[in-house]
Amino acid sequence: MKVIAINGSPKKEGNTFQALTMVGDELIANGIDFEIIHVGHKLIHGCMACGECAVNKDEECSIKADEINKWIKHLKLADGIILGSPVYYSGIAGSMKCFLDRVFYVSGANGNLFRHKVGASVVALRRTGGSATLDSLNHYLSICEMIISTSNYWNVIHGRSIGEVSQDFEGKQAMRVLGKNMAWLLKMKVASTDLVEEPAAEQKVATNFIR
Questions:
Q1: Residue 13, helix vs strand vs coil
Q2: How do residues 109-168 score in pLDDT, each as one tens digit?
Q3: Does residue 210 sit within a domain?
Q4: Three-class SS of residue 87?
Q5: Which of 127, 123, 180 lies closest to 149, judged by CA?
Q6: What distance in Å separates the CA atoms of residue 111 and residue 160, rounded to the nearest whole number?
Q7: pTM (two decimals)
Q8: Sign of the CA dihedral with 34 first, then 23, 118, and 64 last
Q9: Tell me, what CATH number does 150's domain have?
């Protein structure tokens, strides 16, 4: 089994990276492969709402100027996905938001590539806005019918300068517990594969409020 974490911070080894590593250490201790992909420093274009991914059905975004399509392929093969972001104005960092909008739209437009994968979100911040950002990240996981792993508190850790998260003992515990719970869910999912039938996917019904 393998979990891929997305580091949405511009800083390669900043507090978001360190929080993801705390979760990953627990996954590795449970025999699960773990990888962090750094996207927060990349020039990632926002979604153009062209709809070509839904027309072509090739599991790719029509924008070829960045590495989004390579990352989609990696995530499709993973058993679990962790989304990590710093907090910018009580929200997801810009490059990370562009990444998520395109990757998850392609997933949904191509039969829900991440359906029933185990997912989690992690937020690193200085002071406030963590819950709002965590909620926004979880929106991507929930709309894809992913199995969301939780901890014994919100998956938020505090620190300003690089490394300060090591002083947030409650936050560190939340990361450790998240890693343990995620490993447990992944193992449960594998163990129950032949015992519990997976519910069939339904064709999405899309409506609006204009009559």
A1: coil
A2: 999 999 999 999 999 999 999 999 999 999 999 999 999 999 999 999 999 999 999 999
A3: no
A4: strand
A5: 180
A6: 40
A7: 0.96
A8: negative
A9: 3.40.50.360
